[in-house]
């Protein structure tokens, strides 16, 4: 088992360097500790201590903004900018689907498409270009913010972190699915289509509810826990990098044919880099999300079953929060033709959707407080 100390020391060094008021943070690589100088060595200095406390408030401030103000307008939303970039570059990276692939609308039998290395490298280079662009912009923005007065820097850091989080919208959209189901099955399906990419036209009311709860659990990691995790380690650039990788996976990470820009394209190889990058960046946060969900549910969870249930899904990560939610609620969650989580559980009812949202809210709050506390601990390691 690897020693977690180097990770903590690197993160602590990053924040210590970034918060040194008299020494520009961009003079050192983000992941290296700054050298001990008269300006950076004494972390007990009152000015730096004030910066530390203000910085630790940024995750809590971001969550408050998320709840009170919601999402920024689309024209000013960084994730929308990421999506537009990925749409343009993806149309150049992924080849148009062949007639045979269009007929199948899926990967070839066995799930392995013929190797297409040119498409793979086009996708990889396009992904890397976007990662450098957006993460670099976040780095420069953060460096400038940390040269401003402490109150302004902390407020702006929370404000710019907020678009990387989307708990309030997710929570409300899942509740809207349940509300729509009280009107009609068609209304529930229509509302669910705003949340998931799967075909909803053949789902019954129970399957609509299952899909909504699955989406809540999976996106709790993607839209809250993982961005907070990477912000804690690497600051605003870390949160931006994760959100970019997750958005790229959502748009490119398919095994077969998926339309983009009005034309069906083959993503089996063009989207492989994006899918694997998201797998790597989500690996630890997904398991942390499962743990937080279990604790938010009161800890009453068959822990030994959790890894086995999580392994039922094709993704190495999404199964963890979904399985934890299924076990916490005591219900089964199914994707027709793909998997069944907690098959011994009962079918979810309207009350289970409400319980899932309540558990998710407690989990989001706990994760935010943990991020605030972790920032303080990481800086203390630097002392």
Structure at a glance:
It is built from 14 helices and four strands. The chain has 383 residues and is mainly α. The longest helix is centred in the middle third of the chain and has 48 residues, at 205-252.
Describe the model.
It contains 14 helices and 4 strands. With 383 residues, it is mostly helical. 64% of the residues lie in helices and 4% in strands. It has one domain (5-382). The protein has helices spanning 5-19, 46-56, 58-69, 78-93, 99-104, 117-145, 150-161, 167-181, 185-192, 205-252, 272-296, 305-310, 319-329, 350-382; strands at residues 257-260, 263-266, 333-335, 339-341. It has a two-stranded antiparallel sheet with strand order 1-2. A two-stranded antiparallel ribbon has the order 3-4. Mean pLDDT is 85; it is low at 21-44 and 106-110. The radius of gyration is 22 Å and the shape is globular. α1 packs across α10, α3 (58-69) packs across α7 and α4 (78-93) packs across α10 (205-252).
């Amino acid at each position: 088992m690897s020693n977690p100390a180097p990770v903590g020391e690197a993160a602590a060094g990053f924040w210590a360097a970034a918060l040194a008021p008299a020494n520009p943070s961009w003079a050192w690589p983000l992941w290296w500790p700054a050298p001990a100088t008269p300006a950076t060595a004494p972390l007990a200095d009152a000015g730096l201590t004030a910066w530390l406390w203000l910085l630790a408030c940024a995750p809590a401030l971001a969550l408050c903004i998320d709840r009170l103000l919601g999402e920024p307008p689309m024209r000013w939303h960084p994730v929308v900018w990421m999506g537009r970039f990925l749409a343009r570059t993806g149309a150049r990276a992924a080849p148009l689907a062949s007639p045979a692939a269009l007929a199948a609308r899926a990967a070839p039998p066995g799930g392995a498409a013929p190797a297409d290395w040119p498409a793979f490298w086009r996708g990889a280079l396009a992904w890397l270009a976007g990662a450098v662009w957006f993460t670099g912009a976040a780095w420069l923005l953060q460096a400038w913010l940390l040269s401003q007065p402490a109150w302004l820097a902390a407020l702006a850091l929370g404000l710019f972190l907020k678009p990387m989080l989307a708990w309030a919208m997710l929570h409300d959209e899942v509740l809207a699915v349940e509300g729509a189901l009280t009107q009609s099955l068609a209304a529930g399906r229509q509302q669910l289509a705003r949340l998931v990419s799967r075909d909803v036209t053949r789902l019954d009311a129970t399957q609509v509810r299952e899909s909504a709860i699955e989406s809540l659990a999976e996106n709790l990691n993607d839209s809250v826990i993982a961005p907070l995790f990477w912000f804690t380690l690497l600051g605003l650039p870390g949160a931006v990098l994760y959100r970019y990788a997750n958005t790229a996976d959502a748009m490119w990470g398919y095994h077969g044919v998926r339309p983009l820009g009005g034309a069906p394209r083959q993503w089996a190889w063009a989207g492989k880099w994006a899918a694997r990058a998201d797998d790597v960046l989500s690996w630890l946060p997904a398991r942390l999300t499962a743990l937080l969900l279990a604790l938010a549910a009161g800890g009453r969870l068959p822990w030994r079953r959790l890894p086995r249930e999580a392994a039922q899904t094709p993704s190495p990560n999404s199964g963890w929060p979904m399985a934890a939610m299924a076990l916490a609620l005591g219900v089964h969650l199914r994707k027709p033709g793909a998997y069944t989580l907690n098959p011994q559980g009962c079918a979810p009812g309207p009350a289970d959707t409400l319980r899932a949202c309540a558990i998710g809210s407690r989990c989001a709050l706990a994760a935010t407080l943990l991020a605030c506390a972790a920032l303080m601990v990481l800086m203390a390691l630097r002392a």
